[in-house]
Design goal:
This protein is α/β, with parallel strands linked by helices. It has ten helices and nine strands. The two termini are 32 Å apart. The structure holds zinc ion. Zinc ion binds next to loops. The site of zinc ion (ZN) has 8 residues, from loops.
Length: 258
């Protein structure tokens, strides 16, 4: 894959939109976390080229919780050590500047919060927690990892002995907080999409809601997306590069010290 440089004119147009918006939100997908070393599931190097997606279905989990957790533990060894990158920090800074009101993410890695974003809706849940499927008790994932590494596979609830499940949305489960995200999108006049191929529903409806209400859509992605046709600005380059330039441009216009 050739690495494209971000188009400066596109960055300026994106900054215009954000500066003029009254209520802008960010919508992020796997592409914002690839620079943190987290592979995109659907990309060329993606997880689903190596594993059948069946392993991440709720049915597989319920039928083979032990195999599921062995797979998930292996996966967590990459995801749990990941640190936020330039793009996550830029999103958090745009929130501090009052430019972005909230982040709606498809990611489960918790990197937006780690970068300092405060208003985050995690449509696909979070891998930072697990939940007992019998009583609903919530456990920090660190506690669950200790159980697994201590030989308890699948990990069990201390309270009731029920099986624990990552607090992520598995295939076949409904997304979380979709109504909240939808309401937020419907009151927004701009959405900054970063690192999503916009091919997973219902998540991909979020930028469509903004567009339908007359709002502007900015898309930053390495590859063309399914919804390029609704984009007012499409910036085809690395999320970290684009967000660094965009933040700089916004700060210049606000007269904020760099
Ligand atoms: Zn329980």
């Amino acid at each position: 894959m050739s690495e494209k440089q971000c188009n400066t004119e596109d960055i300026k147009r994106a900054a215009d939109i954000l500066i003029n918006a009254k209520h802008a939100i960010a919508f992020t997908g796997a592409g914002i976390s690839t620079e943190s070393g987290i592979p995109d599931f659907r990309g060329p190097q993606g997880l689903w080229r190596q594993y059948s997606p069946e392993i991440a279905t709720i049915d597989y989990f319920l039928q083979h919780p032990k195999d599921f957790w062995l797979f998930y533990r292996m996966r967590m060894s990459t995801l749990f050590v990941a640190k936020p990158n330039r793009a996550h920090y830029a999103v958090a800074e745009l929130e501090k500047l009052g430019i972005i009101k909230a982040v709606i993410t498809q990611n489960v890695d918790g990197l937006h919060q780690a970068a300092g974003s405060r208003s985050v809706i995690e449509l696909h849940g979070t891998m930072k927690r697990a939940v007992c499927i019998a009583c609903g008790r919530v456990y920090p994932m660190e506690v669950v990892i200790k159980k697994i590494d201590g030989g308890q596979v699948p990990p069990l609830c201390d309270e009731c002995g029920g099986i624990l499940k990552p607090d992520t949305v598995l295939f076949g489960e409904p997304v979380k907080d979709f109504d909240k995200a939808r309401k937020l999108a419907l009151m927004s006049d701009a959405v900054l999409v970063i690192g999503s191929s916009l091919s997973v529903y219902p998540a991909a409806y979020i930028p469509m809601f903004v567009k339908e209400m007359g709002g502007k859509v900015i898309i930053i992605n390495m590859e063309p997306t399914e919804l390029d046709y609704i984009a007012d600005v499409f910036i085809q380059c690395k999320a970290g590069d684009a967000m660094t330039l965009l933040l700089k441009e916004v700060k210049e216009r606000l007269g904020v010290q760099q």
